[in-house]
Amino acid sequence: MNFDMILGIAVWTGSGALLLFILMFVDSLFTKYKDLEEVKAGNMAVTTRLVLKLVAQGYILSVSIGTSLHLVEAIVVSVVSFIILLIIEALAELFLKKIGGIDLDKGTKEGKTGYGLFAGTLHVVGALIITACL
């Protein structure tokens, strides 16, 4: 391992961490509650959802880094994947609310861990499908 490889690892890792922070911040703007405040208050449903979404985005980022020759390409793939997952989540939540009477956002905010697990798992499954295409 030479200095260029070490520098590359540092740049890719730093950029990836910054991107994940930004994506999780943007995601928090789409929830009907304040994610970090709920986590601080001990809401395990919100914490579970947030952790699973972070795992999903981290996995997408790791695969996009592994398949990309340039940092910008990996970032673009991650951002586009994030947007796709937001759309899929919105459609799934709408479908569940209309057909099954399940309000994932409300249940998650109320601390129902199963709801948070369900909402976060949508992102994990979406990440697995997206990365299969990379």
In short:
The chain has 134 residues and is mainly alpha-helical.
Give a quick set of tags describing it.
134 residues; mainly alpha; 6 helices; 0% strand
Please specify the SSE layout and strand pairing.
Elements: H1 3-29, H2 35-40, H3 44-67, H4 71-100, H5 104-109, H6 113-132
Helix pairs in contact: 1-3, 1-4, 3-4, 3-6, 4-6
Description:
This protein has 6 helices and no strands. It has helices at residues 3-29, 35-40, 44-67, 71-100, 104-109, 113-132. Helix 1 (3-29) packs across helix 3 and helix 1 (3-29) runs parallel beside helix 4 (71-100). The longest helix has 30 residues, at 71-100. It is elongated. The two termini are 27 Å apart.
Biggest sheet layout? none
H/E series: HHHHHH
Strand content: under 5%
| Alpha plus pi helix count | 6
Secondary structure class reads mainly alpha
Q: Tell me the quaternary state.
A: single chain
| Mean pLDDT value | 93
| Helical content band | over 70%
Beginning-to-end CA distance, first to last residue: 27 Å
Q: Over all CA atoms, what is the radius of gyration?
A: 16 Å
